[in-house]
Write a structure and sequence with these properties.
The chain is mainly beta. Helices cover 5% and strands 54% of the residues. The protein contains six helices and 42 strands. The strands form eight sheets. It has a 22-stranded antiparallel beta barrel. A five-stranded mixed β-sheet has the order 3-9-10-7-8. Strands 4-5-6 form a three-stranded antiparallel β-sheet, with no helix packed on it. The longest helix is centred in the first third of the chain and has 12 residues. It starts with a helix and ends with a strand.
């Protein structure tokens, strides 16, 4: 996109805010807000009638904010904290409670249940990352174990995709930006013959991330593409059968982390001094680690590729006024991740050992040391079969109910190959997770204004793993290597959870509720552990128990001109599962610890509101104040000091540990809000209308790491997005110019200190710059019929 077009877009976007405010005074005050429905609780209900705090994001909102990735929900729903998805698994959190799950720990539930059309996505899968073919996104906040199941300890995100239609309809969307993002999506639906309808969607996205490899002169890039097809059979008026098939591909090229902090003067591997080729100025040429850094330098062309193949069959059979449903689903995902271990400019270990790599073999006749090219390779294969049967009564009765049975079997095969001698690790680990559940929920409207909602679920979880550790360097120097260690184990447990809510209807359009819910997170194997002769088994984090209290208010007022959904909550997690690096380990590859902290708590206030200020102006405000802390977490590992062999304040003992009781949970800003405005300006006659849009999201500073590393803070920031466009009469064609991150605010979606050990046991932080960490401009075309 040339400079003149960029300037034109910037000028147009700069008129949005004042024009919106002026138009608001002149527009007629006749419009109302649209009614919102939700399906994440296994049947279609009005959001206003459900006693749970929830946000629903429409496909129109996703489109207008150029949101193409699930981590973009951070800019739409204040209570959500999702790290960047490129090149790896997404650590997820809601209301300040984050799993901080690492892709090396396979089989571990994330705590946020990601669903697509109500079918749970395995925690190790990336199938729910792309926001394409989306009708809406439903976010249920807080524990949802009764209907969400074993993975919903923190909440549910349900991605609802578009459906077949009995009338011919279609759409096409095209987007291009000045920073090399190109997106295309198409949708077509209609009847095939009487009683058979179809839908077909396809998408392609290519985007550059603001991460550049100086050595190769290449920018990190991602390509996401795929298609989803559905067939709806209606053999009788009481029977609907929907068959779905989807294929998806996600290819990325380049690394996703850059250095944001390194201890001055420290050498890789050796710490205080060493060969010149291990010095920072050689390994990180032209790079200044800071929160503004967007560069790394490496000779490695690393990549990640993910392929999804999904199928499902959904049957809905109406028996009188009851509906019997069956959903059978199969998901299969293959991942290959070739990752840069240290993102440095030199093949340092080959120089250190004298291996002539790259180049011809040794001419001395002596054995040649192995070559190492600074990378590791992961192969991850995820398969899940699930079946759900449910029976639902109508929701408009004084007594209504939903009962169901759910079964799933999730198998993961994870192979890691890393041949760097000081951090040698070659393994094959295969966890298998089965769950068999029975659940029910009933609503009794026992008085004209009162109702009670009660739910109960029984889960039977079966966990097992097989672990083959081919080789592992336990400490260095000198290298202590363990080979040929294997382990396997199994565990089963039963859990009963439930919820109880009281609702009071102030009038047909507003209600208040109080909810108590009992939830859990299942026990989990620490499959990222390393085996030794003295520790021949994989450790386990025991089950979390959750007590949740919520007081809420939902309503629309002034003839549907104003909607307000507010909630006050307090959630207590006992035996909270924590994942953190074991910085006391003497290896340069410290293993991940998965353990139980005594207690964690999150409490706060949330508000989602919308105003139809006029028939042509819509304003939205969503805000959350969240106080999430460890309430009992003694003996936690410390972060590394800034000086090799130095001490960290508050850490005692050998190995050094700290008490994190009272400390903030990771990636949990206290205050976030999102403010949006859209103004329509009719042009008269059949000329259509001008659309002006503005969205501002602000986030308080946040400690991103469990260990409270002082360099792990993401400062507060605000992102302003502006747009101006034209929409034809009938809304079937629109053209929009937009400017995202107008004030060019730089921020990171993730900060990590897992490379502190290799850098001489000193404080080293890397971060993942957000896709929109730099200002960018774009044009979007939408057409439909």
């Amino acid at each position: 996109m040339n400079k003149s077009i960029r300037n034109a877009i910037l000028l147009a976007c700069a008129t949005v805010v004042p024009a919106t405010l002026l138009a608001a005074e002149a527009a007629s005050d006749t419009g109302g807000l649209e009614e919102v429905v939700i399906t994440a609780q296994k049947r279609t209900e009005r959001l206003a009638d459900v006693p749970v705090a929830a946000s629903v994001v429409s496909s129109d909102t996703v489109d207008k904010l150029n949101a193409g990735d699930i981590s973009d929900l951070n800019r739409l729903v204040p209570s959500v904290q999702l790290n960047g998805t490129i090149n790896g698994r997404v650590p997820m959190g809601i209301r300040g409670i984050s799993s901080v799950s690492n892709e090396g720990t396979v089989g571990l539930a994330s705590g946020v249940a990601i669903m697509i059309d109500g079918v749970p996505v395995p925690s190790d899968s990336r199938a729910g990352n792309a926001l394409e073919d989306v009708q809406s996104i439903e976010v249920l906040k807080g524990p949802q174990a009764t209907l969400g199941g074993r993975t919903a300890a923190q909440g549910v995100i349900n991605i609802v995709t578009r459906k077949p239609s009995d009338t011919l309809t279609g759409s096409l969307g095209l987007t291009a930006t000045d920073d090399n993002e190109y997106r295309a999506s198409g949708f077509l639906a209609g009847p095939i013959t009487s009683g058979i309808d179809y839908s077909l969607s396809a998408y392609y996205t290519k985007r550059d991330f603001p991460i550049k490899n100086l050595h190769l002169g290449k920018t990190t890039q991602e390509k996401v593409y795929g298609a989803r097809g559905k067939l709806l059979f209606k053999p009788t008026e009481n029977l609907d059968i929907t068959l779905m098939a989807r294929v998806g591909k996600d290819d990325s090229d380049g690394f996703n982390f850059v250095y944001t902090h390194t201890s001055p003067g420290i050498y890789l591997l050796t710490g205080n001094g060493g060969p010149p080729f291990l010095a920072q100025d050689v390994l990180l040429p032209g790079i200044t680690p800071s929160l503004d850094n967007q560069y790394y330098s490496s000779p490695n062309d690393v990549y990640s590729t993910v392929k999804d193949t999904d199928f499902s069959a959904d049957i809905q059979y109406r028996i009188g006024d009851l509906t019997l449903g069956s959903t059978t689903a199969y998901m299969h995902e293959k991942q290959v991740n070739v990752q840069d271990l240290f993102a440095v400019d030199v093949y340092f270990f080959n120089l250190l050992t004298g291996a002539p790599c790259p180049g011809p073999g040794s001419t001395t006749g002596a054995p040649e040391p192995p070559c190492f090219y600074n990378t590791q390779t992961q192969h991850i294969d995820v398969k899940q079969f699930s079946e759900e049967l449910k029976l639902a009564s109508p929701t408009d009765r004084d007594f209504s109910y939903l009962v169901g049975v759910f079964y799933s079997d999730t198998k993961v095969a994870y192979q890691l190959e890393r041949n760097l001698l000081p951090a040698l690790q070659n393994l094959d680990v295969r966890p298998d997770t089965k769950t068999t559940d029975v659940y029910g929920r009933a609503t009794w409207k026992f008085a004209p204004q009162w109702a009670v909602v009660a739910g109960l679920r029984y889960n039977y979880d079966q966990l097992s793993y097989d672990y083959n550790q081919i080789s592992y360097t336990a400490s260095f120097p000198p290298p202590v290597i363990y080979t040929g260690l294997t382990a396997s184990d199994s565990h089963s447990e039963s859990t009963a959870v439930g919820d109880l809510s009281f609702q009071y209807k102030f009038n047909p359009d507003s209600m208040g509720y109080f909810t108590y819910a009992r939830g859990y997170a299942p026990a989990a194997w620490n499959t990222a552990a390393n085996l030794t002769p003295t520790a021949p088994k994989v450790g386990m984090a025991t089950k979390e128990n959750i007590d949740h209290f919520e007081l809420g208010l939902k309503g629309t007022y002034f003839d549907r001109k104003l909607s307000v959904n507010a909630a006050v909550f307090d959630t207590i997690y006992k035996d909270f599962q924590v994942q953190i690096f074991d910085q006391s380990n003497t290896s340069i590859n410290p293993p991940l610890i998965l353990a139980n902290a005594g207690k964690a708590e999150t409490k706060g206030v949330e508000v989602d509101s919308a105003v139809a200020a006029t028939d042509l102006l819509r304003l939205t405000l969503s805000a959350a104040y969240i106080d999430a802390k460890f309430k009992d977490y003694a003996g936690a590992p410390c972060y590394y000091p800034d000086v090799s062999g130095g001490a960290v304040a508050g850490c005692t003992g050998t190995p050094a540990v700290q008490d994190l009781t009272g400390k903030v949970m990771p990636n949990s800003p206290k205050f976030k809000f999102v403010l949006g405005a859209e103004q329509r300006l009719p042009l008269g006659g059949s000329s259509g209308e001008v659309l002006l849009g503005a969205n501002y999201s602000w986030r308080d500073k946040a400690q991103m790491l469990v260990d409270q590393n002082p360099y792990g803070f993401q400062p507060s920031f605000g992102i302003l997005n502006l747009s101006v466009g034209w929409q034809a009469t009938g809304r079937k064609l629109s053209v929009t110019a937009f400017c995202n991150n107008v004030f060019d605010k730089h921020y990171f979606t993730d900060l990590e200190d897992f490379w502190s050990a290799p850098w001489g046991g000193t404080n080293t932080i890397v971060g993942q710059p957000a896709r929109d960490t730099n200002r960018y401009f774009g044009v979007r075309l939408n057409a439909g019929f």
